[in-house]
Amino acid sequence: MKTTIQNIIVKSLLLLSLFLVHACNDDLLDRSEQFPTLNPTNIDLEAGSWKPYLLNTPDEFPVNPPVPTDSQEYKREINEVKSFQLAITEEQKKIINYWKAGAVLRWNEIMRTLVAKHNRPPYQNEDGSYPTPSGTNPFAYPQFPFSNPPYAARAFAYVSAAQYDALIAAWYYKKLYNRTSPYTIDNSIQLLVPQSKLPSYPSEDAVVAGVTVELLKLLFPTEIAFISQKADEEKTFRILSGANVRSDIDAGISLGQKVAYKFIARASTDGAGAAIGTPAIWAALETQTAARGEMPWKSIELPIRPPMLPLFGKVKSFLMTPADVLANRPPPPPLTKSSAFATELAEVKNYSRSRSREQMQIVTIWADGVGTYTPPGHWNAIATESFVELNYSEVRWARNMALLNIAMMDAAISCWDAKYTYFNPRPSQVDPSIKTTTGVPNFPAYVSGHSTFSAAASEVLSHIIPSKKNVYEAMATEASNSRLYGAIHYRSDCEKGMQLGKKVAQFALDRAANDGAEN
């Protein structure tokens, strides 16, 4: 069992190191050998009837019928494919090898790279205050966004859910129009990807590109040139490979963009923009905690840094209501003046003084701090390694990633709700002699984010791939324990975080049982 866990984690760490290396130069093509060519065992032709997140119906956005394959217009499109294939360059071969691993996979990989690149807190101003990233002026220092764990969890959720809804619509129209791929119309076209019985109109790759680009422009506005470059490569790949003609691509891009705008409209009103709070709110949290007779959390950075996203617990979930968040809120942590708290603090102090080599390795593996793709990104990398082995269709890839990432967004909402409800101090704040190994996150202790994210992810992945349930649960436990070993969390933070993550995941599991994909 441990060997299996370690193998998966080592792969994740390798991916992380590659993301960090490439975060500055944006060269992602050299990693194409990491994944096999997408060749689904089941094309999920009926996926047009699955349950979307925001679309009212799969045909909410009309897609015009394609031109007949015996028309002059279509023949011109066939000739374009043949012209492209006459002299494929080495660079174009790299593009084909990169994108043929799958659109959902590659965009998730790209997004993890962007999260890691932007996961950097700003330096203080000369007067000791801290500047705030601004979506309205994203290129000013500090560049927007600061992709910390809650931001990343929300970003992954929006992109994955939007991809899923867009692909449901695409599958609906594919079945409706049933236009065959160009290589079946003209046998002189060389097919450079596996044969598929899936209709070609609209192109699934183009749909994914269309919806993802618009979301990423919103989420990472300073990366628009890079994002657009990747989308252009993907569109070119489908024509070069003989899988689509130009009208397949155009219809897919248009459909994806329309779906994206619906998700963007939701994002503008979900409360994330106000999650940073105000100085008055920050002060009130401290005052209210002290009024209860408790020691309030304080930043131990100098100068003191504002708390990270204290109102994120009020962000609108895709699956949970505010009442659900409240109902699942963990009970209060041990009082800071209680013997139970003293016992937990002593345990943390013991780990800060003496850790085994194995415990240090666990701390390092699950650190997921500044400059990384965060705990949600870590679990996306783990999911990718697992999903590749099962040869999913693009629409099932998107469905599973949406379940995973919406569960982790809800984990972030529920965890941050608890953190700023109880405003509990970190161990090293209570006892400055406690030395951590991964720095001290700039937000309250109770409950552990790593524990909540990991338990939610483990529950969802265990539902999708039951044969790996023990592996995922063991990984989640290691991730949770890493925060205790690293001396930044108490035992109750970790245990209650794990419990919260499992409760939150149940909302995603209930949806999974009724979304039509498991019928």
Beta content comes to under 5%
Order of helices and strands: HHHHHHHHHHHHHHHHHHH
H/I helix tally: 19
Radius of gyration: 24 Å
Basic shape: elongated
* Nearest-integer average pLDDT: 94
The total of beta strands comes to 0
> What's the story with the biggest beta sheet?
none
What is the rounded distance between the termini? Answer: 31 Å
Low-confidence stretches: 1-6, 9-33
Alpha-beta content class: mainly alpha
Helical residues, percent: 55-70%
Q: Can you tell me about this structure?
A:
This protein has 519 residues and is mainly α. The chain contains 19 helices and no strands. The protein has helices spanning 2-22, 72-86, 90-99, 103-118, 149-177, 182-185, 204-219, 224-240, 246-267, 279-291, 322-327, 339-353, 357-365, 374-388, 394-422, 427-430, 449-464, 469-485, 491-512. Helix 1 crosses helix 14. Mean pLDDT is 94; it is low at 1-6 and 9-33.
Please give a handful of descriptors for the protein shown:
elongated; 519 residues; single chain; mainly alpha
What's this model, at a glance?
The protein is mostly helical and 519 residues long. It has helices at 2-22, 72-86, 90-99, 103-118, 149-177, 182-185, 204-219, 224-240, 246-267, 279-291, 322-327, 339-353, 357-365, 374-388, 394-422, 427-430, 449-464, 469-485, 491-512. It is built from 19 helices and no strands.
Task: Furnish the topology, listing elements before pairings.
Blueprint: H1 2-22, H2 72-86, H3 90-99, H4 103-118, H5 149-177, H6 182-185, H7 204-219, H8 224-240, H9 246-267, H10 279-291, H11 322-327, H12 339-353, H13 357-365, H14 374-388, H15 394-422, H16 427-430, H17 449-464, H18 469-485, H19 491-512
Helix pairs in contact: 1-4, 1-14, 1-18, 3-8, 4-5, 4-7, 4-14, 5-7, 5-9, 5-14, 5-15, 7-8, 7-9, 13-18, 14-15, 14-17, 15-17, 15-19, 17-18, 17-19, 18-19
